[in-house]
């Protein structure tokens, strides 16, 4: 039977999903991240399907989201979007360490994945942590600087003011920007899924990254899936492909 356990790890609320018959085993583990203005519970389908296939799954809530959502307005969530992404990236080692101390994870078989903001998060994690084995990025962008400037322009056009220096904040994203250093992927398995009609995170970002990886001779382990009609919403086919990719590569 698949178990869903709500717990707090290092003050981070997560859903922990696993097969109860293997509850105490060191299992391959997937950290899967939700999208902007969403929450961990909406991604339980991924956790269930992956746990059926023998993986341990951790669904965290990002800062300002889910159980970590305080009095922040929609505007504040938008203004601090990249702080939320960086928070996810910086918190990952804490989650891994805590689970390893409990003897629950196979440290040689760790993966990250996510949709939209979760995919953006996952790209940054792959740029930061060589110990991650697999990544699944659904409707995201690895082009941190370019996308950050586009988002900032959109926020400014709505009359919102930033309580910080935008250029300085964007410059701070450089270490997480996989597009600027694609060789950091180091031929690790990566699945990229994107809908061509995406009106939130442009499809061009995924296409451009794949082309860059091809140019660097690093596309052998990359699965690039394109949905010709999808907007900013993962399809059933995309979800099942992501689960199958993680099962195969992890």
UniProtKB/TrEMBL annotation:
Q: Which residues form a coiled coil?
A: none
Arranged from A to Z, the UniProt key words for this protein are: Hydrolase
Q: Which SUPFAM superfamilies match?
A: alpha/beta-Hydrolases
Q: Where is the Peptidase S9 prolyl oligopeptidase catalytic domain?
A: 85-234
Q: Which InterPro entries match?
A: AB_hydrolase_fold (IPR029058), FrsA_esterase (IPR050261), Peptidase_S9_cat (IPR001375)
**Is Lyase one of the keywords?**
no
Top-level taxon in the UniProt lineage: Bacteria
Q: Does the keyword Acetylation apply?
A: no
Record field: transmembrane:
none
One annotated GO molecular function is: serine-type peptidase activity
Q: Its Gene Ontology biological processes?
A: proteolysis
Protein name as it appears in the record: Peptidase S9 prolyl oligopeptidase catalytic domain-containing protein
Q: Which organism is it from?
A: Listeria booriae
| Organism ancestry | Bacteria, Bacillati, Bacillota, Bacilli, Bacillales
